[in-house]
Amino acid sequence: MFTGIVEELGEVVAVETLTDAPPATAGGTPSRYARFRLRGPVVTEDAKHGDSIAVNGVCLTVVETADGEFTADVMAETLKRSSLGALEKGSRVNLERPMALGGRLGGHLVQGHVDGTGTIAERTPGEHWEIVKVALPDGLARYVVEKGSITVDGVSLTVVEAGDDYFTISLIPTTLDLTTLGIKQVGDPVNLEVDVLAKYVERLLGKDASGDPR
What we know:
Elements lengths: L7 E11 L14 E7 L12 E4 L2 E9 L2 E6 L1 H6 L10 E5 L19 E10 L4 E6 L13 E4 L2 E8 L3 E6 L1 H6 L10 E6 L1 H9 L10
Antiparallel strand pairs: 1-2, 1-6, 2-5, 3-4, 3-6, 4-5, 7-8, 7-12, 8-11, 9-10, 9-12, 10-11
């Protein structure tokens, strides 16, 4: 479990795309996956094999660490659901270690399970902050509410305005300086994780994906 408080702006050192493992899926088509090597001296200072690190909001498992870098495998489903498939050598990424039990919950409860990718639609600079409009993919708008929480590229943020197919967020200088949200351009994809509580409530109320009762 994470909090959406980014610890470090890391960097992709290498990306290797593989198709020989895991085993072929039904029908004999190999599954594509990727192995990432990322630089993050802060998040790797106490990391070991099997630990979790969130990369742009995606929970990944550490394979190995060395000299301030770590490697992680990214399965086909994750590449499909997130923007990690677009990363290349030199890309900057938001990094966060899991919250320790008893630690401060500085943001909100974040699982590191991306629900989909949005797109930066507009950026409106201000004197002390910047308003960013994010276009939502189909099916996620019902989980986004004004003043609610949302995770964007692993950053815990408060929704300013919730539209039918978009939402806006207000970014303070610290967020602009210390995360990828300061360098994302209009048209760039961002990983989105909605508040998990909203999804549980929907399930308990017996709604389907369209909002209709079951």
